[in-house]
Amino acid sequence: DAMVIQNPRYQVTQFGKPVTLSCSQTLNHNVMYWYQQKSSQAPKLLFHYYDKDFNNEADTPDNFQSRRPNTSFCFLDIRSPGLGDAAMYLCATSRRTGTDEQYFGPGTRLTVT
Amino acid sequence: GQNIDQPTEMTATEGAIVQINCTYQTSGFNGLFWYQQHAGEAPTFLSYNVLDGLEEKGRFSSFLSRSKGYSYLLLKELQMKDSASYLCAVKVDSSASKIIFGSGTRLSIRP
């Protein structure tokens, strides 16, 4: 089945210790997104790629970086995690044509100790 | 600014019908999505409206009025598994893929 995969599902990191979350897709979609979602809040878009074209949201902290080495993979790097970065991180993809609905991965729940 | 409003919580009875409203004030409009999100899981796509009117898909229907900046999601024959958050989201720019989510409506179904 075509899908969006996120690893790991749960990640624990220490305050200030860099962490990388990964996302892969078998849908061959042009667009990949990273969202941060805190409890009972809306998913907040951090950035997205249209192919290799990177689009950063104006209010995404510099602490968050992303890489997309090829169509299938996208990474979220948090350089110095703070306690406020504990959240669910959702990766999504879309085709950019037609309805352009987004397909989400299962998410990575990040805990910062 | 971009503003998408939904009720925070709703409760309904198994077998009944519930309507979840969404109003939006955004810089542009190129379609409105509804997503379902079960606790601790990722959102899943339910419906998309870009023209005024009602879109029906099984037990779920979604309505859009662009002139009023208003949409609703109608769920019929409610089942316990419909207990989830329902997120309204607007695509504001036709040239970009990004959408803006509302905070979601947490729907609880009672037997």
Describe this structure in words.
The complex is a heterodimer of chains A (113) and B (111). Chain A is mainly beta. Chain A contains no helices and eleven strands. In chain A, the strands form two sheets. In chain A, strands 2, 4, 5, 6, 9, 10 and 11 form a seven-stranded mixed β-sheet that branches. A four-stranded antiparallel β-sheet of chain A has the order 1-3-8-7, with no helix packed on it. In chain A, a hairpin with a 6-residue loop joins strand 4 and strand 5 (44-50). Chain A is globular and about 40 Å long. The model of chain A has no long low-confidence stretch (mean pLDDT 93). In chain B, 0% of the residues lie in helices and 56% in strands. Chain B has no helices and eleven strands. In chain B, the strands form two sheets. In chain B, strands 2, 4, 5, 9, 10 and 11 form a six-stranded mixed β-sheet that branches. In chain B, a hairpin with a 4-residue loop joins strand 7 (60-65) and strand 8. At the A-B interface, strand 5, strand 9 and strand 10 of A face strand 5 and strand 10 of B.
Residues in helix, % of chain A = under 10%
Class per helix and strand makeup of chain B:
mainly beta
Q: Name the helix and strand elements of chain A from N-terminus to C-terminus, one letter apiece.
A: EEEEEEEEEEE
Major β-sheet profile of chain B? 6 strands, mixed
Apparent shape of chain B:
globular
Number of strands of chain B: 11
Largest interface: A-B, 26 and 21 residues
- Strand percent estimate of chain A: over 45%
- SS element count, helices of chain A: 0
Task: Tell me briefly what this model is.
The complex is a heterodimer of chains A (113) and B (111). Chain A is mainly beta. Chain A has no helices and eleven strands.
